[in-house]
Amino acid sequence: MASSTRPLALRAACSLRAPRCLRSTAAARQEQPGEPARPPPPPDPERGSARGGTGPRGTRRVQPPPPAVDFGDPREAFRSKSSAELVRALVVLRLCALEPLVARSRQLMNLSRKLLGQQRFEQLMKMTFYGQFVAGEDQEAIKPLIQRNRAFGVGSVLDYSVEEDLTPEEAERKEMDSCTSASEKETGARSPYLSPGAAQREKQYLAHREFGDRRDRVISARTYFYADETKCDQHMDTFLRCIEASGGSSEDSFSAIKLTALGRPQFLLQFSEVLMKWRKFFHQMAAEQGKAGLAVMETKLEVKKLQETLANLGIATKAESQHWFTGEDLGVSGTVDLLDWNSLIDSRTKLSKLLLIPNMKRALELGVRLMVDAEQTYFQPAISRLTLEMQRKFNMEKAVVFNTFQCYLKEAYDNVTMDVELSRREGWHFGAKLVRGAYMEQEQARAAQVGYEDPLNPTYEKTNEMYQRCLDYVLEEIKYSQKIKVMVASHNEDTVTFTIRRMAELGIHPSEKKVYFGQLLGMCDQITFPLGQAGYPVYKYVPYGPVNEVLPYLSRRALENRGFMKRAKRERDLLWSEFKRRLITGSLFCNPSH
Ligand SMILES: Cc1cc2nc3c(=O)[nH]c(=O)nc-3n(C[C@H](O)[C@H](O)[C@H](O)COP(=O)(O)OP(=O)(O)OC[C@H]3O[C@@H](n4cnc5c(N)ncnc54)[C@H](O)[C@@H]3O)c2cc1C
Q: Is the pLDDT of residue 230 over 70?
């Protein structure tokens, strides 16, 4: 974000404009250039039909059968690893399973640093936790690992993982400062949370001191706290360096971005609130028209009734709202869906011009794709919307910007379907990463304590259902479209197996490179490497950064394995099998890839 333009963004986002298109979904679908109406799919010259189909100039393109993948073969899983790396993984994953050790990892690291001195401490970390979970200190140091993974069919999503080492009190102070406006601070002296201005605001989108330390109960994600605009510009430089490192490391790479690093969180909070209130308003209108409970893309407001309601509520006279609803196809459909409704909050020209352009330009020049991470629910609507603005602008030729959808959210399916539909109407490429979600404990505690509806699915099983539903929907769409790409970012073997099976059923071959897989470096190699060897596009999230500055992130990463004991045990069993195999066959010191 260019710092001088940042304050303008919210105002831009809130300005009302006439909707761009008010046509029905089906009509829009048919008009989409390069996108066949469904069903049945007409032959697509590039893609062919779902199974094999017709290739260029009418030749029959017979696809090879999808490759088999075995997640239980230790030799295949660890082919890229030296025996020393096997031992390191065994030791580190075993240590991660020791609860008291992990719980005090931060203190233990600090103590070791004092006892050993900086240099020896760094060596120790590189031989253990850092070596297991972090690729290296800088873009040069990480190159060998990236190239080795690439040789085994595994790509990289570079993630510069430096975190400020703040105490919980410092983090809390910074958060309260940066999430509260000057006027709220003034009046907030009387009431800590609900100043008169804030009383109009939704509790979910206000800063709450007891949740000021956003790192609390979050394991695998880096966390940024706002200091000032200069610091944001430094973060932007960091992201630019990360993009350059991605460009230099391999073709087809990604760079991960966190939007909370690039601006004042107060903006993300307030923008999120505006977006969610706007959406709620649409659903209230739908309920008034007797359309409550329909799937989001099936919910269509009748414009005539809508105008009456707006007039009755004193929001706009019929003459005024007539001006809003003057889409060219209004006469045909006479209805407004949530996408049309959202387009009334016109941000297209302004937001996309103002935000994140330096990152994007560099990424485009270097052929790097950007993966925008999903964060807490009180920021996420804004993050997602800003990402969408970038997709509209930069995804016209191919998917350069990828958004992230968290399937532990009750509204995940609505979010995915709406963005896919919008991309189809507007003709840009949709790119998404599907995750379950990293902030569960914090989100649940915040909702319960602050007193708003828990935005998360109530159980793990419901989250699994949601993941499967979103994934199934996207895969079905991929079957018919050249313009959709998805990364299945999960360590769950069942999820990966399900994806592979559905890809085979739908005739999506891995060589089409429309479905990617993603895991974190140092975890679940038994999933990543067999996928890569079988020809499925698969990526490791690759954290890097100087030892000391990565430590705060690293100590929380150790917790990740603790939560998934069964999975970590399976990984350790496989590592152990491979170690024993090498020992018995006398190949402990041979090059493992031979
Ligand atoms: C490559 C990659 C990129 C990632 N990027 C992001 C990102 O941008 N944003 C982000 O938030 N996360 C991200 N994550 C983390 C991810 O969201 C998960 O936290 C993590 O991967 C564990 O989920 P799983 O599918 O691997 O494993 P599983 O063990 O199958 O799932 C665990 C997850 O299920 C959900 N869950 C567990 N119990 C419950 C319950 N009782 N009720 C409801 N849900 C429950 C939680 O989300 C929990 O993390 C990423 C993960 C990977 C591998």
A: yes
Which residue of 436, 526, 556 sits with most ligand 1 atoms within 8 Å of its CB, as the best mutation to test the pocket?
Answer: 436
Q: What angle do CA 41, 47, 53 make, to 5 degrees?
A: 70
How far is 316 from 311, CA to CA, in rounded Å?
Answer: 5
Q: What is the mean pLDDT of residues 516-544?
A: 95
From ligand 1's centre to the CA of 359, what distance in Å? 27
Q: How far is the CA of 378 from the centre of ligand 1 (A)?
A: 18
| Least confidently predicted of 162-176, 200-214, 382-396 | 162-176
Cα of 435 vs centre of ligand 1, distance in Å, is 6
Whether 214 and 460 have beta carbons less than 8 Å apart is answered as no
Task: State pLDDT tens for residues 299-314.
Answer: 999 988 888 888 888 8
What confidence tens digit (pLDDT) does each residue in 127-179 have?
999 999 999 998 889 989 999 999 999 999 998 876 666 677 776 776 677 66
Query: Is the CB–ligand 1 distance for residue 520 below 6 Å?
Result: yes
Taking CA atoms only, the protein residue closest to ligand 1 atom 5 is 373
Q: Which among 134, 368, 352, 373 has a CA at the least distance from the CA of 240?
A: 368
Q: How far is the CA of 203 from the centre of ligand 1 (A)?
A: 25
